[in-house]
Amino acid sequence: MAVITDPTALDGQAQPSQVFELEDLLERKEMEELEEAASAEPEGGEQAVQLQTRVAQLEAHAALRAAAQPLRRLVRGRYRSAGAGIQLELRVDVDGFRPTMRVSGDFFQSSGATASYAGSFVVEAPTISSALGVVKVEGQGRFSFPVGSRHVRVTIPRGTGFPPRPGVATVQFSAGGAAPSATYLCSFVSPHFRSVQLEQDSVAGAVPFISYDTGSLPQPPSSPVRTLTVPKAYEEAGIEMQVAGAPNVISAGAAGPDAKWDDSELHNAMVNHFSLWRDAPLWQVWLLVASSYVQEGVRGIMFDAGGAFQRQGCAVFHDAIKGMDPASQRAQLRTYVHELGHAFNLLHSWQKNFADPPQPLGSNGGFGDLSWMNYAWRFQPPPPAPGGEPAYWAAFPFQFTDSELVHLRHGFYRDVAMGGNPFGVGAAEIDADLFGDPVVNNSGLALELRSPGAFRFGEPVVVELKLSTTDLNGRDTHGRLDPKDGFVTIAICAPSGEIKTYRPPLTRCVDDGAQVRLDSERPAIYESSYIGYGKDGLYFQQPGRYQLRAQYVASDGSRVLSQVHHITVRSPHTEEDEQVAELMMGDDQGMLFSLLGSHSEKLASGDQALNEVLDRYAGHPLAVYPRLVRGANASRDFKYLGRDKTLGMKPADPRESIQQLNAVVDASLQDRGVDNITLGWVMKRRARMEAKAGDTERARQTADDMVSIFRRRTQNPSVLRNIEAQAQQIKETVARESR
Fold first, then answer.
1. Contact of 172 with 147, CB cutoff 8 Å
2. Where are the beta strands (DSSP E) in 486-606?
3. What is the pLDDT, as a whole number, of residue 16?
4. Is the distance from CB of 184 to CB of 106 less than 8 angstroms?
5. Start-end of H helices in 15-95
6. 550 φ, ψ to 5°?
7. Which of the four pLDDT bands, split at 50, 70 and 90, describes residue 482?
8. What is the pTM of this model?
9. Which of 157-161, 358-362, 557-561, 704-708 is predicted most confidently?
10. Coil/strand/helix, residue 120
11. Could you tell me if 311 and 418 are in contact, meaning their C-beta atoms sit under 8 angstroms apart?
12. Contact 594/306 with Cβ under 8 angstroms?
């Protein structure tokens, strides 16, 4: 914790309230925007006069307020050194709105017209003093690289003028009481700690969010009423979000205004059409406002979490949050800020213990956090306090938590910058007892992790999750078992003893409170998940014995653990096995398995490798997986953005899809194919393709075949009822669409 030796001297007068500071910040920003707008209008024109009148009103208001309570002479903000060689970008955060009482900085190596990141530091518990108009901040720093001179001293003279600006900051690094080993002179750059460029595009019909008046609906009395845009929400956190160019409105084209987007299409849209996108850590992010997602309940997604450079793209789904009423506008603001928060490497409130280093969870395991990064429907302070969406909005002050502010303002460069370290960086390194058995478990729920006991080398590792109730009276909870939704985490212990958590390459925000009832009629729900590839790359790259354990976070915050599940990845037996495994393993192939195919040119090398398996090794047992990818990809009408950012569509190829999916079914019936859940998905998709090709009778027969197959494979009554219901739904859909 920071030590302030003279708190009243720090600012030269009594501390003003946070509300006063926020009003001052927002008014100064508004004055800058109005002055810029006025300069663009014809001199003496009506619009220019109105803008200048408003600026004069704000200046008069500020002057009156300053007379009653003088403006603080702040030193907060961003500073930068000049000259060749090593340059320092310094952040001083010891006064102003919600100070975290820290200083931090990033080093860059300048060479010619280029600059490369060299490292970062932060002083988390400085001593702060002020005398003779000079602020001094010093303490031991934590560095991202080995260093001997850990003592940091920052000296900044008070500024003058209106509004007052800080002087030049002198930064000295030393070892204990030794003479400084390095000194930097950093000039004031901005009151914001970081600046980010936001590029936003929207599909026609998906109206982008503009602003929300926080006084439109009840809010905490301590939270000031103001009009919030997405950039202003981040500005309050000390982050400048610059809108990069005019937003593009993408014509729906052949896809239609109600088109649903899937993961593969979103990934392809970003890598090809985010004009600022680069394979490098940069303060640039793309936000796509799309119509809807293929799965109900998903309000947004950070879909760029695979490969070397992650967190550069996210999407919000207009149909899930649309509306001009205050409640809808409020929901839109929260969703936009939330998804962009993931791009800054902020995890959900209940997942912070998977960060690197692991962060303490907030109130009630994180579910009690009043943060942009919590779900409103999941909000639950410690009982008996009421939870849920009404309680969240009644208490939410429209801000990040203190720990999130520290990350946004002072996290090391690669941990925060888009394209830097992977999402949840370091979550791969976890304690072996992270999923230790709870001392008390009254959740009434049980989680089971299942799969074949052995996999071939290079075979996609797919596991089945089963959530059931142990309570004879039944239990209500959410049914989100897919790790992409953030409520299930799977730990993987490799043969080497290294423990990682599976982190899917896409993070969906299923922001609704839909519940399922587990009881005697429906004792369990199931989910199949491919866990071979994620944000850390390939997880099963060596033969040997692996240990898996899953954790499910229930609606009430209970953390339910599975048993430890063992699998073996066998060594290849033949030269052909080795060659097929080599073709199956790679980042692009892993992403294609995760997306179930893609037409993206960025994944062309992976697609070529999987096609080579089918061309040269069609009879190999692992060929069923490239067939699944090819069949699934051929079954979708693939939406893509053209170079002019108009929306085009590559139509599905039912004939190709049916051919490949037939081969998957045949192999699975010989126990050389996919798991039961995936097999059910394949048969449903094949029936849809048969109907699309005009063979409605064949589609109905596929639905009947699905029931017959699963009657031979399981005796579970609830599973069979579910299969029969799905088959009936297929027939009804086929009949409806064939009219």
1. no
2. 488-493, 499-502, 507-510, 516-518, 524-530, 533-534, 537-538, 544-553, 559-561, 565-569
3. 38
4. no
5. 18-39, 46-68
6. -110, 155
7. very high
8. 0.71
9. 704-708
10. strand
11. yes
12. yes
